[in-house]
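Z., the sequence and structure:
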Amino acid sequence: MRMTDLPAPSQTQPAQQRRRGLIRRFRRDQDGATAVEFAMVVTPFLAVLLAIIETALMFWTNQILEDAVTQASRTLLTGQSRELYPATNSSTTNTDAFRNAVCANAPALVTCDAHKLKIDVRSYASFAGAQTGTAGSNPVSGGALNTSGFQYNQTGPGQIIVVRAVLTYDLLLTQWSTALANIGGGQRALVASTTFRSEPFV
């Protein structure tokens, strides 16, 4: 048989073999896998991390506000409030003065602004009346904040006194979260309150 009678080698076989080799190497190659995996998990990881930090700051701020309200309310317990917030003053003046007293006991994180921090002081004849009265004036309802009735009311001896402070807290890291923002606009209303019977002062 002459050499010219042999079948010519296929021109497509080397190209097919090269492609199959590239595919096999691609399957075995692990370079860049870590970067791809990190890109897939970094977004949800950062979202969870920011939510944890935001929640911690929010609870810390609420605790500071609770302590400040409790400390400022001691004057209502003992009757000293009659000298600090006399009946001769207007309700607005006494409300501002009591807000300043709360802020004096909250050195950090609490924004002491009249538009951000709302104060309500009310007195009742019984604990049942206090429960009914506060339930009917819930400042957070239906995803909105309503503190239109909040003000400082004069208190007397032997009364059940309810003090509430509502702080409009601006979410810093998770403004997109609808779970944390309970009044919309990337904000959450933090409510601090204390209830007690005043002493029978004269």
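The mean pLDDT is 87. The first helix runs from residue 12 to 28.

Let me know what you think.
H.
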